Amino acid sequence: MHDVVIVGAGPVGLFLACELGLAGCSVLVLEREPGPHSPFKAEPLGMRGLSAASVEAFYRRGMLHQVLTASGVHDDPGADPDADEPSAPRHGGHFAGMVLDPAKVDVAALPYRLSSPAPQGLLTYLESVEAVLSEQASKLGVEIKRGVTVSAIAQNDEGVVAGAGADEYAAHWLVGCDGGRSTVRGLAGFEFAGTEPQFTGYSMHATVADPEKLRPGFNLTPTGMYLQPPNDGQIGMMDFDGGAFDRSQPPTLDHLQAVLRRVSGTDVTLSEVHLVSTFTDRAMQTTTYRQGRVLLAGDAAHIHSPLGGQGLNTGIGDAMNLGWKLAATVHGYAPDGILDTYTSERRPIAEKVLDWSRAQVAAMRPDPHAQAIQGVIRDLIGTRDGATYVFERTSGSSIRYDLGGEHPLVGRNAPDFRLANGPRLGDLMRDGRGVALDFSTDRCLRGSAVGWESRMRYVAGPARNDLGLDAVLVRPDGVVVWAGDRTPDREAFEQAASRWFGGPEI
Ligand SMILES: Cc1cc2nc3c(=O)[nH]c(=O)nc-3n(C[C@H](O)[C@H](O)[C@H](O)COP(=O)(O)OP(=O)(O)OC[C@H]3O[C@@H](n4cnc5c(N)ncnc54)[C@H](O)[C@@H]3O)c2cc1C
């Protein structure tokens, strides 16, 4: 009997497995595919953009260097130790194919950011991310069983049993991280609601006989959209067919060439197609992320088009949010209702991502009204405020959970405070505990932090830049749950610690 069975060793399942392993849970991951390698996860089709928030999650768990190296970034950027401002983004991303100029993003205007060794986003590959996470999971004692397809689930008050053929796997909790076509979602009876697709999307690796007929980058045309990223031979297409083609039949070379000709408005010729996958902009999410002892995370809980690259980032955010809450529940010290805050905090985030995706689709439709909208958006994202707004939405900087509390930092991602004697908040979070930072001259929270040592690290000392705060309490997922900006109120601090970490140990 494991504490937790995770179905799916994709990036979200593996990230969650690491979080649970770090917190001392026994974890079994069941994965359908017999091996970790797939051409769809490698260059060029496996390219994925990690947001600032996701890169920071790797940094906070001591995996930044590994993920940069695996992604082919060898000049570990490392923030300027003397800078207090966050670094500028390397890539601005796009809205509906309209590319953002990263130089226009006003990083100083992002709410509560300080410099950090984690870059503001990273281009990587699914294979690289999964390799780093699999290695970390194994180091943390997580068992990964490949070639196991879960096809049945039974739960009662005591636990859950996952069935795969004649084999059964029992655990106290089960998390479905089994992707957009989640079996767990269906078996456990989650309601999945949203909007139907407007287009079929294609991501292909192909040889083009006359490449000069296509333009590089995003190309919005009167008949759809095509994309040529810098990767050699990669082409993306969006064909507004109401999603009719997706998965209805195999995409032949003739079909792909016809679509490419239509959306590009050229007579371009494809001489060979090496690899192709299709997708749609169907945008749906479950009405809750938990049914009894079964939870969902990542694409299993929410699907939308890959426009603007947010699916993986939202899933990593789910895993960070859920991991420590589920571990506290497993270990028996979780405060009442903590597991339900997973749905109440994360569902609204995915809801906004789904709407962001729908807004892009509306602006990309091949009709004069959408083209008029494109003109307006181009003008807006060409301004400093517009570029900063889009970056805030896609980088994770705009995320704020409604946790009550008066201070405007509460519910937000903690800035990477750096103590005068060296360590940064990110360094202090590697063991997965919460962190109480006490910048006050008389270390006035020292007595109050006693009793939570196994769940919360207390660190005192002046900060290089305390943003006018005297103390902050940060959850294991990096979210600020209490902030004191004058002489810290010890009672309020203790209430916040009890609310999130349970009562103190005697
Ligand atoms: C073309 C494209 C580009 C994208 N670009 C970006 C981007 O730039 N940034 C971004 O954030 N997101 C992007 N995404 C989305 C991103 O890839 C997904 O959101 C992410 O991979 C979801 O991770 P996951 O772990 O939830 O699911 P998956 O990656 O789908 O993993 C699910 C795992 O579960 C396994 N599984 C399924 N069923 C079972 C079963 N019954 N039993 C056992 N195992 C099972 C599968 O084999 C798989 O390994 C893109 C998507 C596409 C299609």
From TrEMBL:
**Which InterPro entries is this protein grouped with?**
FAD-bd, FAD/NAD-bd_sf, RIFMO-like
GO MF term set: FAD binding; oxidoreductase activity, acting on paired donors, with incorporation or reduction of molecular oxygen, NAD(P)H as one donor, and incorporation of one atom of oxygen
Stretch list, region Disordered: 71-95
Cofactor(s) demanded: FAD
Question: Could you tell me which Pfam families the record lists for this protein?
Answer: FAD_binding_3, Rng_hyd_C
Query: Does Zinc show up as a keyword for this record?
Result: no
Protein name per UniProt: FAD-dependent oxidoreductase
Which species does this protein come from? Streptomyces griseochromogenes
